[in-house]
Specification:
The complex is a heterodimer of chains A (278) and B (533). Chain A is of the alpha/beta class and 278 residues long. Chain A is 29% helix and 19% strand. In chain A, strand 8 and strand 9 (214-219) form a beta hairpin. Chain B has four domains: 21-149 and 498-529, Rossmann fold; 171-229; 237-350, Cobalt-precorrin-4 Transmethylase, domain 1; 353-476, Methyltransferase, Cobalt-precorrin-4 Transmethylase, Domain 2, CATH 3.30.950. Chain B is of the alpha/beta class and 533 residues long. Classes of the chains: A alpha/beta (278), B alpha/beta (533).
């Protein structure tokens, strides 16, 4: 329509969701886009195998956004992205999970728009969706969860954010907490104080869908200590809610403390059944 | 509840028209006749020899290039005859290729060849050709031919270049190994299901390790792994696959693979039909008609059908729009599989909310405006607004709320949300067919969206997004040609941000490292591993 002659030379930015970790959980569109990128800016959270989809000539740059390690400043990432695109490159900004769900995509999209650079977003499977699939535990089990919510376990300073605790205490919600490792005990205490049943099933998943995935199945009351004991490396997410009782049924959950987890789960399941009976 | 329907098999659509039929000719030891202008035929002579043919070349002026090929042919022998071709030369030939500037001569050659029952190609003269040569990607015994039916040979070449890049050279060795191992596998006395299982494992291994040299020991390893999975009990399996929001490209690689392995696919109405194109043509596709508002199959019937198909030994894919684990009623189907002892796997999918967020360029957890993202359904078991919605959670101004199946109950939903304290000026949008080419959107506020949507009904499936994250209004305002409500997103009376913003914090040192040269990741590589060059 209004194609200007220089538009051929203008670069663009695509924010791509890399999915939860397993490269097979990338979308076809994400794979195709990676294969056409000139430069790929990626986070620590992206599984390295995923970069294999890139062309050999593509530059890949780690922009080091991880939960707790030192990170690049968001402004620096934005500036780099805009500079590369302005020089005519197709820049792929590759993010773990879905860029639009706790991926800080908003800031990067704004930066591109402000610089007049075309920007596109390709969604990705979130870690919670990946983990739920592996555990065969529906996030919205119709008997146990009428609502699904995602919150983040740490704000920009690393502290527990001010969440709507009442909505976390709802017995009919599945809550997914991103990056909770350091704040989990405080989060559990607050949620229980707001009325969440301490026997509510809670599952921690580290490195979801990767070959070295680790799963801890417990209850809201017992999970923080179990996770602290193991302090698993890599990204961790926690899923809380009665729907997670299903995770205990999954045969591939064979944690060390299977017995104690099972006991906790039995309690949780009977709590669910009591609630259903009401 | 209202009427129900039963699962119905989808009549296989007639195949789309083919410009040409790709066939692969076995020429090993067969006679090929090539004649005409020496410079033009040289490459075809080499090609036919490479395919194993005994090539007889008839050219008055046998150039150096042809002599070189004849002296050192890549495959079958190349015999040069320094004379014009004759009708008798076609005797016992399997294929004929000519290059003639003169149209009369070209036609004479083609007619003679056909009279002798030999299929013929005249270079650059499609009107005389029985067949054409495509662009070739050679990983023999794996061979890929590309044709554009003469429409755009350059396009064919470009596709070839792409394929060359994504298909590792090592696939040739794996294809060769497959050829050799076929006999070994037969001797292993695995039954049909077991052998199929073996090949599935073989393919998985080859795709993951294209650069390994296949060895006999790997055959044993793959066979042992296959035996361990005990495929001989001809038990089927069920895979619940999330089809994603609509655009077929938003299917995952794993989902694609599951579809390609399926014997039977049970599919909902809401799944984009194009996605079924990924399945094998022979796969049975059964519409199990779960929709929001139209009559549906009973869940029990769907589950029973799924179990009985899997019990009969079939690979069943249950294809659901979005993600099976998010308002997809997966738990009932998983429970039924477990109860029947049938292996079940779930492949997640992109939800329509995620799809919509991406196509609108809208972060669902916009840092300053949304700290919580929640999904609810507007449609209870009885088709009415569920009576157990947590209105406190919905009314939270710092949440983004996604409502599934919202249309019928939207007015009631919005009224209740406002009654519980949600600002009626909170932005809201209804999106239909998110990520598909016919995606459309109606924007407004919690206060006026129901009326706007009633005035501009959208085709199902529709989702509604609510929350201040939508204040990223640029996505709506400017130029969304797809906005169907006629009025571009209005100057909404959004109030200034009153939320506490978590901005404080320690900034750390930027770590920008270029990994271009240290990329080769150990372990498994991707689905389309990079070719070695």
């Amino acid at each position: 329509m209004n194609s200007k002659p220089q538009s051929d030379r203008r670069g663009r930015v695509t924010l791509v969701g890399a999915g939860p970790g397993d490269p097979e959980l990338m979308t076809l569109k994400a794979v195709r886009t990676l294969a056409s990128a000139d430069v790929i800016l990626f986070d620590n959270l992206v599984a390295p195998e995923i970069l294999d989809f890139a062309r050999r000539e593509a530059r890949t740059m780690l922009v080091g956004k991880s939960g707790h390690g030192p990170s690049c400043r968001q402004d620096d990432i934005n500036a780099l992205m805009v500079r590369l695109a302005t020089s005519g490159k197709h820049v792929v900004r590759l993010k773990g999970g879905d860029p639009m769900v706790f991926g800080r995509a908003g800031e990067e999209i704004s930066a591109c728009r402000a610089a007049g650079i075309p920007v596109e977003v390709i969604p990705g499977v979130t870690a919670a969706q990946g983990a739920a699939a592996r555990l065969c535990a529906s996030l919205t089990h119709r008997d146990h969860a009428r609502r699904l919510q995602y919150v983040t376990g740490h704000d920009r300073s690393g502290a527990l954010p001010d969440l709507d605790w009442t909505s976390l205490a709802d017995p009919f919600v599945t809550t997914v907490v991103y990056m909770p490792a350091r704040t989990l005990a405080a989060l559990a205490a607050k949620a229980i104080e707001a009325g969440l049943d301490p026997a509510t099933p809670a599952v921690a998943v580290a490195r979801a869908t990767r070959p070295d995935e680790e799963v801890v199945v417990a209850t809201m009351a017992t999970l923080p200590a179990l996770v602290a004991d193991r302090s698993p490396p890599g990204p961790v997410l926690v899923m809380i809610g009665r729907a997670m009782a299903e995770a205990a049924l999954d045969t591939h959950v064979s944690t060390n403390e299977k017995a104690s987890a099972r006991a906790a789960m039995t309690a949780a399941i009977s709590a669910v059944q009591r609630a259903k009976a009401k | 509840m209202s009427t129900t329907r039963s699962p119905s098999e989808i009549r296989r659509p007639r195949m789309a028209l083919l410009a040409q039929l790709p066939v692969f000719l076995t020429l090993d030891g067969k006679r090929a006749v090539v004649a005409g202008d020496a410079t033009h035929i040289a490459w075809k002579v080499e090609l036919l020899s490479a395919a194993g043919a005994a090539v007889s070349v008839f050219a008055e002026d046998v150039k150096e290039q042809l002599q070189a090929i004849s002296a050192d042919p890549p495959g079958g022998p190349v015999t040069l005859h320094a004379r014009c071709w004759q009708s008798a030369d076609f005797a016992a030939a399997s294929i004929a290729v000519g290059a003639f500037v003169d149209v009369v001569e070209a036609e004479r050659f083609a007619t003679s060849a056909r009279r002798a029952g030999v299929p013929v190609n005249i270079i650059d003269k499609p009107q005389f050709c029985d067949f054409t040569f495509g662009a070739i990607v050679n990983r023999s015994p794996l061979v890929i031919g590309i044709s554009t039916d003469g429409a755009a040979p350059m396009f064919g070449m470009a596709i070839r270049t792409k394929l060359e890049a994504v298909i590792p050279a090592g696939f040739a060795l794996w294809a060769k190994a497959a050829q050799n191992w076929r006999r070994l596998l037969k001797a292993s006395r695995l039954n049909l299901a077991g052998r199929r299982h073996f090949w599935r494992n073989f393919v998985g291994h080859a795709l993951a390790h294209p650069d390994e040299t296949p060895e006999r020991s790997q055959f044993d390893t793959i066979l042992a792994a296959t035996r361990k999975e005990r495929p001989s009990e001809s038990k089927g399996a069920v895979v619940l696959v999330g089809a994603g929001p609509g655009n077929p490209e938003l299917l995952t690689l794993r989902g694609l693979r599951a579809l390609q392995c399926a014997d039977v696919i049970l599919v909902d109405d809401l799944v984009t039909p194009e996605i079924l194109e990924f399945a094998r043509r022979e796969a049975e596709k059964i519409l199990v008609g779960k929709t929001g508002h139209r009559p549906s199959c009973k869940q029990d019937d769907v589950t029973d059908l799924m179990i009985s198909l899997a019990k009969s030994g079939r690979q069943v894919v249950r294809l659901k729009s979005g993600d099976p684990m998010i308002f997809g009623r997966a738990s009932e189907e998983i429970a039924a599989c477990r109860a029947a002892g049938i292996p079940v796997e779930v492949v997640p999918g992109i939800t329509s909310a995620q799809g919509a967020a991406s196509s609108l360029g809208l972060s669902l957890t916009q840092r300053r405006r949304a700290r919580r993202l929640q999904f609810v359904t507007g449609h209870g078991d009885n088709g009415r607004l569920p009576d157990d919605i947590n209105w406190h959670a919905v009314a939270d101004p710092s949440a983004t709320t996604v409502i599934y199946m919202p249309v019928r109950t939207l007015e009631e939903f919005c009224t209740a949300a406002v009654r519980h304290g949600l600002d009626r000026h909170t932005p809201a949008a209804a999106i239909s067919h998110a990520t598909r080419s016919d995606e459309c959107i109606v924007t407004g506020t919690v206060g006026d969206l129901p009326a706007r949507l009633a005035a501009n009904p959208l085709p199902a499936p529709v989702i509604v997004l609510i929350g201040r994250a939508l204040e990223e209004a640029e996505a709506f305002s400017a130029s969304e040609a797809s906005a169907v409500d006629g009025s571009p997103y209005p100057a909404l009376p959004f109030r200034d941000a009153t939320l506490t913003v978590c901005e404080a914090g320690t900034e750390t040192v930027p770590v920008l490292c270029d990994l271009t040269d240290s990329r080769s990741a150990p372990g498994r590589s991707g689905f389309f591993p990079r070719a070695k060059d």
